[in-house]
């Protein structure tokens, strides 16, 4: 559905674009399965997939109300109206128990993970989050930290960088009537949605020369993970609701795409352009060259994969 590796955007850039409000939330055929996965993680690992600061419940409620209104308006087949909606929330109250966090309720209605960013003396920080499907990071390590420190592992995005300053300005100037979105991609060895990675584990893999994908056919064992991120300023609280929607496909789908040669060529170009720090961050240091070679074969020959 989203292919930021086709040349439409560049990795390790902010790359924000205006978001069409009616396209804010995405629901596909995996909806029920993903929500079941969220419920399981919240039951088994609640302290690792949900965090909140005191005093954020009102903003969480604002986020929940906004999501409810959007779902009723945008997906009438699933959320046909107020009466059915109230019944769904009542059922959730019974499941989660009295006094549950509104952000958890909201996250169990959508495939997106949800984060509230709040501005304080140290800048914008992660004040609450329901994140069941992290892409190689850990919610508890990012909790209550300012945006510059959250992005510290990302090359050229940490404290004092131009990107960090620009992100803070974007957050400050964001208007409720104009949400924005961005896309990024990574590669992984399986189709797991829940992929936390601690800072210690990330440090441990830097410079690793152990391949993650088989030498003879790296694409056959790789999965493309695309993150679609949106930012919406909540008008009452002034907090920013940050949504993270994962799209996960086997990399072999490129070889079956009608525009496979163009997409493969652009993907190869993006991989080839990554520097050492960027390769370490994406965990592709040992695999990049073989992936590039395989993609260029598709680009040149147009051979189908899988």
SSE string, helices as H and strands as E: EHHEHHHEEHHHEHEEHHH
* Number of domain modules: 1
If you compute it from the alpha carbons, what radius of gyration comes out, rounded to the nearest whole angstrom? 20 Å
Distance between the termini: 19 Å
Structural class: alpha+beta
Helix fraction? 25-40%
- Please state roughly what percent of the residues sit in beta strands, choosing from under 5%, 5-15%, 15-25%, 25-35%, 35-45% or over 45%: 15-25%
Q: Which regions have little confidence, pLDDT < 50, spanning 5+ residues?
A: none
Identify the overall geometry: globular
Protein name: DUF3445 domain-containing protein
InterPro entries: HODM_asu-like (IPR021848)
Pfam families: HODM_asu-like
Organism: Nitratireductor mangrovi
Structure, described:
With 306 residues, the protein is of the alpha+beta class. The protein has one domain. Helices cover 39% and strands 17% of the residues. The chain is built from twelve helices and seven strands. The protein has helices at residues 31-44, 46-49, 57-74, 82-96, 102-107, 139-142, 147-150, 162-173, 199-205, 260-273, 276-282, 288-301; strands at residues 17-18, 50-52, 113-120, 123-130, 180-188, 223-233, 240-250. A seven-stranded antiparallel beta sheet has the order 1-5-6-7-3-4-2. The protein is globular and about 55 Å long. The two termini are 19 Å apart. The mean pLDDT is 93. It comes from Nitratireductor mangrovi. This is DUF3445 domain-containing protein.
């Amino acid at each position: 559905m989203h292919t930021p590796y086709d040349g439409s955007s560049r990795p390790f850039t902010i790359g924000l674009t205006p978001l069409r409000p009616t396209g804010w939330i995405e629901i596909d055929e995996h909806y029920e399965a993903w929500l079941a996965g969220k419920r399981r993680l919240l039951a088994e690992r609640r302290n690792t997939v949900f965090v909140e600061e005191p005093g954020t419940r009102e903003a969480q409620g604002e986020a929940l109300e906004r999501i409810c209104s959007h779902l009723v308006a945008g997906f009438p087949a699933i959320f046909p109206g107020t009466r059915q909606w109230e019944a769904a929330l009542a059922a959730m109250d019974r499941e989660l128990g009295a006094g549950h966090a509104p952000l958890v309720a909201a996250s169990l209605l959508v495939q997106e993970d949800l984060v509230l960013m709040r501005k304080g003396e140290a800048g914008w920080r992660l004040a609450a989050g329901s994140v069941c499907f992290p892409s190689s990071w850990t919610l508890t390590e990012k909790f209550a930290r300012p945006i510059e420190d959250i992005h510290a592992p990302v090359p050229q995005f940490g404290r004092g960088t131009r990107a960090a300053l620009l992100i803070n300005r974007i957050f400050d100037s964001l208007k409720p009537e104009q949400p924005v979105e961005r896309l990024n991609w990574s590669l992984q060895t399986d189709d797991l949605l829940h992929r936390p990675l601690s800072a210690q584990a990330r440090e441990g893999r830097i410079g690793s020369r152990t391949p993650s994908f088989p030498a003879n056919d790296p694409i056959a064992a790789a999965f493309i993970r695309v993150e679609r991120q949106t930012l919406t300023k909540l008008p009452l609280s002034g907090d920013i609701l940050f949504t993270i929607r994962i799209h996960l496909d086997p990399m072999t789908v490129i070889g079956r795409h009608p525009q496979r040669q163009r997409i493969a060529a652009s993907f190869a170009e993006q991989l080839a352009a990554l520097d050492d720090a960027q390769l370490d961050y994406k965990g592709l240091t040992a695999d990049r060259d073989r992936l590039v070679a395989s993609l260029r074969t598709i680009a040149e020959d147009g051979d189908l994969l899988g």
